[in-house]
Amino acid sequence: MSEPLRPEDKIENGDRRAFLAATAAVAGTAVAPGVLLYGMAQAKPAEEAVSAKVRWGMLIDTSKCSTGCTDCVTACNTENGLAGKTGPQDSQWIRKVEIKNLQTGAKHSLPMPCQHCEHPPCVDVCPTGASFKRADGIVLVDRHICIGCRYCMMACPYKARSLVHEPLTDQNPEVPRGMGCVEACTFCVQRVDRDETPACVEACDAAGHKAMVFGNLNDPESEIAKTVKTYATTEVRADLNLNTGVRYQGI
Amino acid sequence: MKIAFREIEGKSQGYWGLLAVLAVLAALGVGSALYMEHHGHIVTGMDNQIVWGLPHVFAVFLIVAASGALNVASIATVFGKTLYKPLNRLSGLLAIALLAGGLMVLVLDLGRADRLIVAMTYYNFKSIFAWNVILYNGFFAIVIAYLWTMMDQKGQAWYKAVGTFAFVWRLILTTGTGSIFGFLVAREAYDAALLAPTFIVFSFNYGLAVFLLVLMGFYAGTGRALGDKMVNRMKNLLGVFIAASLYFVFVYHITNLYFTKHHGLEAFILMNGGIHTLLFWVGQIILGYLLPMAILFSPNLGNNRGWIALASLLAILGGLAQMYVTIIGGQAYPIEMFPGYEVSSSFYDGVVHAYSPSGLELMLGLGGVAVALILVAFAVKVLRFLPERLDDEIVSALHGAK
């Protein structure tokens, strides 16, 4: 079908081939890690809705969590634009809880964020539907329809929620908050949607404790799914059958 | 014998003085709410531990009393006691007024009171709060229709049907109010189905106490005749309702005392809870139940108008104490997340939460009471809510007519 090649064409083709090969090599080097990362993180395009195929969860190993360390709390405050004050009227999205067994004297230290229940009482009681659970299990407050009735705070068995008691300044544009509305840990949803881990987990890793693991409980290959399958883990107030997204090891 | 209803004259110094005092209280209440709205809840005594404070104590009391105030009308309409029929207009009026006052406090205490329209347009039907929004609005509509059947010739054919519907509605409404707490699984003081019927019994008690006081107040103030036959029947009924309240409170605590896991909570309320223990024993039990019962059932004091008024007032104060212990006490006792462990954190885990209400909260609560009373005082001046006379002669005639 094609015309026979002329000698001068051969020379030109040879150059072109070399050029193409070089280009491909350069492009490949540049793109490959990205493609590889894309595959590892199973990222979804921004326009795609979150789906119930994913259930975000957090596993906290209290044996690795050190008493007095509050790196996760500090990181949360920085990421989400919280002042970090600890008065009775100040917001705390994650707190360090120290517990001591009254019989044995055993002490544990553990971080306590919103537990992101599968059946969240805060969502059940919210009159307007401002408290809601995303398909991927993250429990959030819609700041536009929260009327500040605080019924969710009455209903939460973990005391995970705070009311914004005073006017706010210097907010993180990615984390809208508002006076008179209720708020809580969002699992750093803005980071999770960019395929990053929550700020608290990152800080715990950076401090070398690695007490917090974040991941997709529905993905059998994820570290969190493998660990909860292998080792005994605990839900706080498991008697309530809320199937929390946050689980603990070592208590 | 036909009952004549007439507006009160409402020209006396006493009447305008009463309205002036109430108007000042209402203005202070609204002013407090505006101040809170501007500065945020930081200016109140409420915080992330005690999320519902004194405004809720007043609001829930008024809402519970509202449904109870309708009982007098229900006794006449549903249970056919014609003796009470002359009082059913005031009963309906008080129900509406108390609910309006209570809802005003509840709404103005919201973090975002400006978003009231959101509460009216977005509904999560799994929320008992959302149901209550519908139940409250429905209550207004039904009781207004009920009053129309009482006061307009054209409505009389519907009187029994609407009255029965209003009675059923008010029972559902108070079930809803009690279930605000009953459906809370998180806190030990709540999470009990018993709270719904308990709140219904409380409503009988508080509603009748308010009704008696208002009735005696207006008749004394306007010099109209109010015979002992009417008052004594109602004060006996109040005594029974107070006894029933005491019974339900007893069952609630005896149940908790039987369950070992609730011993901590019970010790807190009954023995070492400071202000909550004091308010429970002195406020709710002694002043709210035992003392008024002793007065009302006493052969001497129970026939004296002043003592009956005092007993009614005590029942109301006892009701406010009960709401304080239920609402604030229930939150002050820490949530038990780790049974068998001693717990501490920067977020006040494991400790009894302190609460000192600010003056703003008290003014908002009293503002709601004032608005309710203004509505009543104004309505009896412009419409025919009160019978001209309720002396023993007319009451006997009515009693015989049943």
UniProtKB/TrEMBL annotation, chain A:
Residues 56-87, 137-166 form the 4Fe-4S ferredoxin-type domain. The chain crosses the membrane at residues 20-41. Pfam families: Fer4_11. One of its GO terms (molecular function) is metal ion binding. CDD domains: PsrB (cd10551). It comes from the Bacteria. SUPFAM superfamilies: 4Fe-4S ferredoxins. InterPro entries: 4Fe4S_Fe-S-bd, 4Fe4S_Fe_S_CS, DsrO-like, ET_IronSulfur_Cluster-Binding, TAT_signal. Coiled coil: none annotated. Keywords: 4Fe-4S, Iron, Iron-sulfur, Membrane, Metal-binding, Transmembrane, Transmembrane helix. This is Molybdopterin-containing oxidoreductase family iron-sulfur binding subunit.
UniProtKB/TrEMBL annotation, chain B:
It is a multi-pass membrane protein. InterPro entries: Electron_transfer_protein, NrfD-like. Keywords: Cell membrane, Membrane, Transmembrane, Transmembrane helix. Belongs to the NrfD family. GO terms for cellular component: plasma membrane. The chain crosses the membrane at residues 15-36, 56-78, 90-108, 128-149, 161-186, 192-216, 237-258, 278-297, 309-333, 362-380. It is found in: Cell membrane. The keyword Transmembrane helix applies. This is Molybdopterin-containing oxidoreductase family membrane subunit.
